[in-house]
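Hi R.,

Here's the chain you asked about this morning:
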Amino acid sequence: MSAYNNILLTVLLVLCSILVIFLIVICIKLLITADKLNIILTDVEKKLGSVKKVFSLVDDVTDSLSAISDAIVSKIVGGLGSLFKKKNLKEEDIDE
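And here is the predicted structure, written out as tokens:
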């Protein structure tokens, strides 16, 4: 019986050693993968920063174009409004 216990204990120790080695290898691979992921995320962050600048530039350009077009439209509407006011004033003078 003692021989069976020794054999069983030896088998369990060998299996535990294999399990520990396997877990160490898995942890090392996970660390390498995490490092690669960190490098990729850093690169993506840099690229998003440059894209953010482009979108900011486009936003500034559209804001300025909108302001210019609003100014032009207000000038045209003001000119047309003054033209119709003069026309209405002349028609009222003729009616009197």
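One quick note: The CA atoms of residues 6 and 86 lie 116 Å apart.

Cheers,
M.
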